[in-house]
Amino acid sequence: MTRRLSPAEAQAVITEASARIIEQGFDAAMFTTETVIGAFLPIKSYLRLAKQFTRHEDRQIRDGLLDHAISNNIIEKPGSATFADVVKFLKYLISPVGQQVQYLEQQKAKLRRKPGFSPDQAQAQITEASARIVEHGFDAALFTIDAVYGAGLPISQFLKLAKKFTMFDRGFRDELLTEAIRSNIIKAPSSATFADVVNFLYYLRLPFEQRSKYSVQKAKLCRKVGDDGVVQEAAVKIFKPQMDDFATPQKRGSILELAGGVEVPPVVDSLTFSPNKRARGDSS
């Protein structure tokens, strides 16, 4: 039988669980037994919520999570936030989008730990690889580390994909893009998302004779599920004949990704990421 915590013991575990949150500049006086109970949270539930944030030992990961939440109006800045704001933020972190944001910050942390390869260097590579794509009217702001990881792509893979388009001269690139727009593979550059660009680059990996087949099947898919997005299950079903045409694991994997079969779902377009923004309390 579990022993019930005394008021002093309950306060001690709340204080300990909140230590890394307080480090971000939040008022330590907010984290009491009374505020937890007042938020209709069992103490155990609060401890589980807090761990979504405090489990990240890397302070820069926690900084990134908080910056993202502030820029998307999930939470007030630490100096003016209430305990209710903190709870809202912690609950956000366990949502699908919150889990995606944590994934992105973890990937950036891996870059920071990689010898001789900083996030700034990674961004520079992405920008350079995308330069000829941007020349065609795509928004340069689409091509970021967050967007690449949000599409479930290692940076090295995006660089290889981009070459499928940028390796050609301007005239031939114009022809490729015009044909893809006509075939509903990608939207016009001015309204295309990063996901549209990735889909287009995967399309370019298909052998020429497979492209018209893909265009027809994608049109059927759009009529079934709408133009706003591709349902993965429907996509896999429709692309199954194409997948069976490809014998090598590498080509099969490419079609699966083209059909939406990436492990990590893309970040919601309405969210903004500001890795360089620092709008927290004292981070000393």
TrEMBL record:
Name the record gives this protein: Uncharacterized protein
